[in-house]
Amino acid sequence: MRSVALAFVLVLASVGASAHQAPLIPATPPALIPSPRSAVFAESGGFVVTSRTPIVVPGGADEAVRVGEVLSALIGPGVGVGHPDSLDVQPLVETGPPRDGAIVLALTDRADVQAPEAYALTVEPAGVRIEAGTAAGLFYGVQTLRQLLPPEVEYSAARIGPLDVPAVVILDAPRYPWRGAMLDVARHFFGVAAIEQYLDHMALYKLNRLHLHLSDDQGWRVEIPGWPRLTTVGAQNEVGGGPGGYLSTADYEHLVRYAADRFITVVPEIDMPGHIHAALVAHPDLSCDGEPREPYTGIRVGFSALCVEQEATYAFLDDVIGALAARTPGAWFHIGGDEVQTLSHEQYATFVQRAEALVAAHGKRLVGWDEIAGVPLQPGATLQLWRPFWDDLTHPDSARRARAHAHADAVVGAVEGGAHLILSPADRIYLDMKVDSTTALGLAWAGYNGVRDAYDWGETPWLDALPDGAIIGIEAPLWTETIATVADLEAMAFPRLVGVAERGWSSRETLDWDDYRVRLARQAPRWHILGLNYTRVPEVWNAD
Ligand code: TNX
Hints:
With 544 residues, this protein is α/β, with parallel strands linked by helices. Helices cover 32% and strands 17% of the residues. The chain folds into 2 domains: 8-172, Chitobiase/beta-hexosaminidase domain 2-like (Chitobiase, domain 2, 2-Layer Sandwich), CATH 3.30.379; 178-511 and 519-530, Glycosidases (TIM Barrel, Alpha-Beta Barrel), CATH 3.20.20. It has helices at 2-7, 62-78, 135-148, 192-204, 229-232, 249-261, 277-282, 311-326, 345-361, 398-416, 426-429, 451-455, 461-464, 486-493, 496-505, 513-521, 524-530, 538-541, and strands spanning 38-49, 55-56, 93-94, 103-107, 119-124, 127-132, 163-172, 178-184, 209-213, 215-216, 219-220, 265-272, 332-336, 365-369, 382-385, 420-423, 471-478. Helix 2 packs parallel to helix 3 and helix 4 (192-204) packs parallel to helix 6. Residues 301, 338-339, 369, 386, 430, 432, 443, 479, 481 line the site of ligand TNX.
């Protein structure tokens, strides 16, 4: 964004004929997050959106029209119902040729927007034009246009007045294909409305993967046909003894569609062979001792495991993976694989390889926590690196250094075998870690993750030495041992998740904390209108 700030020349509005026609160019450039690859703001001009502004999708491809409808829903209420300058309807999406005075969303074969998710956005007095090779690119162009519009566009009720957009030319594409957030709906259950809200907020910052942690020791959270006890028994608890809950098949399918409408892919996780106590409460036969169990409502980890040596376990997994794979259009299935303390390495490795085969048999690609790096895997597996180790590679303590090197060697071995990596370092972007000593919620086993910590990391020699393309993205997990309400969820996720979104999208050269924190501070008015709860940290909102 440095270049954007420099390119912007302050011009107060004096352009256009009448008061309503004159774009009020803001005194500082709009605070875009993630910062685009390039943005050149013009010295004057701009466009005024009214409710008469048509949205034109030349050619009318269905998926592009749907993006037009997203934009229409966004700006419709904002331009005011009942005002003489407005119509009582949302702007309509037309499918004719581009015309002056319109916002045009065009699928194009223009060479510079053919990278996945890339787009170009031009705002000039005659109109707005978003061009992309894919509907996803158009959607991201719309999100950028949204951030160029004043925060008031976010009101869902009618509001009077046209909306000004400054003149700009933007060319943009993401750094990584995987820009994720993980939500643990197992420790505390979060249902459809809460997940929809999270998806809405993710979309504003161009995040594109929602990893749902659907099972753990405390609860099983998704209906599996043929296994009703998983939900009638296994879902009825949560940390602290609350009522729990689960996503029905219809709920899950709804969320997958809701996410897809925002160009977000749902990645389901069933954590196995450990973190499985709730399933064993429902089906003691899946354990080796077969003993009945009481529900678990504490926050210890590592104590439970499936009976990995019995065939019935794999018949169960075949049903579970099959049922979820059939309802998940995305390419991935996450098997967890973390923190297993009750199995030998051989037992664990055999289990992971059998789970991997089942995932493949159901047409999905394997994702697992970084423990699976110790198991020989088929090429194309994805490892989610969560345990902090790369800072320890040079640690003065030799035992710590040795552990870090062993971990790093396993990961490099997996990469050499064709694995991809998602970065989720607990000591940086775990959203359940406390922000600082004043944070009431959250854990601190990986330290405090300040807003700057969650943004300013990742340029280390070890990561840099990995082959090009090994790292496919970034994902911020939000574990919910201490988090029980949407307000608490948002307070932990925001603003740190926004920094993760920028790290995932923006090119390395544009990442700059001092520039970012100013843009971040300026998101707050939009969040107030959206009703988004966030932690107002002094280094962003009271900075010098
Ligand atoms: C570690 S991260 C876990 C989770 C906990 C989390 C709490 C990972 C793969 N396992 O089971 O919820 O720490 O921060």
